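Risk register update: the risk of archive-format incompatibility is retired. Evidence:
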Amino acid sequence: MNAWWTALAPRERRILVLGGVALVLILAWIAVWEPLVQGRSALRSDVARLSAEAVWMEQTSDEVRRRARLEQRSPALPSGGSSVLTLIEVSANAAGLRSALTRVQPEGEGARLILESVSFDALMGWLAELEQRQGLQVSQLALEATEATGQVSARLLLERH
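Archived output:
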């Protein structure tokens, strides 16, 4: 090999040396530099995604803490073997809907209710709480809009799950 190298003209030796250097640089680029750049890009996108998740978790944890404080402050509602009528009366009072509750009538394993001029949002929140915490489910619901914005009159049937 040494004889072959010495037999080459100086110009050919420079071309081969420069070609070898170029080949080493290209291989270094492909084997080392490009994976590092791609890894860095992937890490940046992971950091952005994880940062967004951390922000969401912070917001959610604040909401969880707020709800935990509200549950600690709210009076204990009867549950388990208590009658549906008692559950409805106590929870409506705790939710501030007692004045809107004009009729509570037992029906089977549940109760038929009539509420007049109640805030739609408050009503939906109360019904959600009855379902989640007390095991009551709305099986029939009829709503009528009133003249006041955001207020409805409701007729509904609540039953145990």
